[in-house]
Input
Amino acid sequence: MATVPVYRWRLAPDGYATRRQLRAVGLRPGGQDVAAQLERPRRRREPLVAYLYRVDRAKPVRPMTPAKWAALAKANAARRICPECRRDAGYVIPPSLGMCVTCAFPDEQRAA
Output
């Protein structure tokens, strides 16, 4: 297994980008392996690591199909439905509560 070159933070040569940087310009890694990595040193902890990909080997982002848009809308709508009262809460149900605020704190809602 070949080792990848390691660069210090902000000292990577041109032609490399992180996943987020690729996405910002409409590209994706496209199945290529990690070409290099950045390391940002930290005191008393292991360094932060960012993986870099070659920009010239990156491929364009696949466009969203109507079926994908529909599936995403359905999934987001499901996150708004309270499992207790089965109503649309109007916001994404917090995972920590597992239900809408009205169902989670019924006494406080009646007092208000």
The chain has a mean pLDDT of 92. The chain has four helices and six strands. Residues 66-78 form the longest helix (13 residues). The radius of gyration is 22 Å.
